[in-house]
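Hey team,

Filing this mostly as a record. A colleague (T.K.) asked me to run one chain through the structure pipeline before their review meeting, and I want the input and output archived in the tracker in case anyone asks later how it was produced. No errors, nothing strange. Just documentation.

Input sequence:
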Amino acid sequence: MKDFYKKILENNKEWVVTSLAKDPNYFQDLAKGQTPPLLWIGCSDSRVPANEIIGAKPGEVFVHRNIANMVVHSDMNMLSVLDYAVNVLKVKHVLVCGHYGCGGVKAAMGNDSIGIIDNWIRHIKDVYRLHDQYLNSITDEAERFNAFVEVNVKEQVFDLAKTSIVQAAWKNGQDLTLHGWVYGLNSGFVTDLNVNISSEKDLDEVYQLRF
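Output structure:
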């Protein structure tokens, strides 16, 4: 434990030296403020690093992460991040990114009790219930798992579009587009689920064609 802790402290020092070697003003410029064009709502999984996946630099992505990249309307943490991103930072894009092999989604497909996370997974189970006819029609378990990951992302984008924060932004003519992706852990590539929504009209059209 001590060796690991010492190592990450040393890694920080090396990162600072490397960053300053590339740009002597690197940290001074970062300290001046942030104007990211994108809010990323992703999974807490340690294998899904938002900046690295899209090749973004520090300051270019505002990030919120939770188990299974959920948009829960009673989650004040998520709502606070969304409100700040939309109304203060004026991001132009909000991206919900799930990933194949998501442990939270997998847990929601079963009935085992894991612990306090069971309460969070209840929200994911609700998504399955909404689409059980479609998902249960997929006989191969691995394919059904992947389909559930995709369905969950789509539903989170729709829930995002229904928040008062996003609704007010569109009503005020703000340039704001919502997107849904799934990241492949075994490939590194993302799949665009084609739920790109820029207005209430878009929401109605995409929702009708979602499956």
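Quick notes for T.K.: The first strand starts at residue 38 and ends at 43. The first helix runs from residue 2 to 22.
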